[in-house]
Design brief:
This protein has 15 helices and twelve strands. A six-stranded parallel beta sheet has the order 2-1-3-4-5-6, with helices on both faces. The protein has a six-stranded parallel beta sheet with strand order 9-8-7-10-11-12, with helices on both faces. The longest helix is centred in the last third of the chain and has 31 residues. It is globular, with a radius of gyration of 22 Å.
Length: 377
């Protein structure tokens, strides 16, 4: 049977599409679902708008313990082979989502392969770990890449800190905030119901992401009799963390709640609609520009967070705290002030949305440059 025709697709367009060389997109892709993996997947979809963008995941997936390393090594070799195939098909560029930990050792091989093939490689930075503590591994990666390595940063401050630590003129640098990949269709925020202030955390709930800080905040609110509810959303993988959370839920009924697992789609949107303030007392070593802060901001929810990574560019003064300072007392005072001043809360909501929209606009302009360069030598 003759295949159905698609009158809106011209043969000339198909011929042109066949001539566009592939641009491999390499990085930690889901599963598991993390903020960085979700952003890398979104970037791959954007790059595919201008031509083939095969995805090569370096994530260990469900592998645990000692199996993680051979899985990552095998996926790295597969990605290296994909670079070779792309070059044979005329490809001259590739995209690599950077790792903040020892995964950079695997990525070093890919940088060397790209350089040997005469390909330009866009390294998209997603970690402040090697900015907070400049290290030899990043310097080695930069030396290995030489002139073939171009960079994407999440914020102007991230770019400035990288250049201060590692040098280079950065003439080809791009700054692409995560907000551009997270911008939803506009929709009105539901009116705030009367009653207690509602604060929440959505994350892979771990100690590093602030689980125990939020539990302690709920306990402090209870002891002070504040009109405050704390809501948690996301999976809990560690048995000790899960036990601590379940015990807190038993001690603090009506004060602390949990979705019972991960949320996505409409359930995630409903979570943001049901809170007034987002909390992120993160100590994660790779923390850069958390996607959840932008997601909350697009829902009109301001964030209170420790000022790690690029968070001070996401949350204004008064809404981020020096990581050396204790989070709980400060956050409790800020929440109490917002509870007592509905006008200030409404203004913080408007400002959060405006900041997210501005970041998304800046990211869209930079993404246009990234898409335009794929056919350049």
């Amino acid at each position: 049977m003759k295949p159905a025709a698609f009158p809106h697709v011209r043969p000339a367009d198909l011929a042109q599409a066949r001539r566009v060389p592939p641009l491999p997109v390499i990085g930690n892709l889901p599963p598991p679902v993390t903020g960085q993996a979700a952003i890398t997947l979104a970037a791959a979809r954007w790059l595919a708008r201008a031509g083939p963008a095969p995805r090569l995941s370096l994530s260990p997936g469900a592998a645990r313990g000692p199996w993680r390393h051979p899985v990552r090594a095998a996926r790295t070799l597969r990605a290296a082979a994909a670079l070779l195939v792309a070059r044979l098909q005329g490809g001259r560029r590739a995209y690599l989502a950077g790792d903040g930990g020892w995964g950079r050792g695997h990525q070093l091989l890919l940088i060397l392969v790209a350089r040997a093939l005469g390909m330009r490689l866009r390294l998209h930075h997603h970690s402040f770990a090697y900015l907070d503590r400049p290290d030899r591994l990043m310097r080695l990666a930069l030396a290995a890449g030489g002139g073939c390595l171009d960079h994407v940063f999440l914020s102007p401050a991230m770019r400035a800190r990288f250049r201060a630590a590692y040098g280079g003129d950065g003439a080809r640098d791009l700054v692409i905030p995560n907000a551009v990949f997270l911008r939803p269709e506009p929709r009105p925020r539901p009116p705030r119901p009367p009653g207690p202030l509602r604060a929440g955390l959505l994350a892979n709930l771990t100690a590093a992401k602030g689980l125990h800080e939020v539990i302690a905040l709920a306990e402090s609110a209870e002891s002070r009799g504040l009109a405050l509810e704390l809501r948690l959303a996301g999976p809990v993988a560690d048995p000790a963390d899960l036990a601590a959370l379940k015990a807190a839920l038993m001690r603090l009924p009506g004060r602390l709640s949990w979705t019972g697992g991960p949320v996505s789609g409409e359930a995630k949107a409903a979570f943001y609609d049901a809170i007034d303030v987002f909390l992120l007392p993160t100590t994660h070593r790779d923390e850069a520009e958390p996607a959840v802060i932008w997601e909350a901001a697009f829902a009109g929810v301001p964030a209170l967070a420790w000022g790690r990574g690029a968070i001070p560019e996401q949350a204004p003064p008064g809404f981020h705290l020096d990581p050396a300072e204790p989070f709980g007392p400060w956050a409790l005072d800020r929440l109490a002030a917002l509870q007592a001043d509905p006008a200030a809360l409404a203004e913080a909501s408007r400002a959060a949305l405006a900041r997210a929209e501005a970041a998304a606009e800046a990211g869209a302009r930079a993404l246009a440059l990234l898409l335009a360069e794929r056919d350049r030598p």
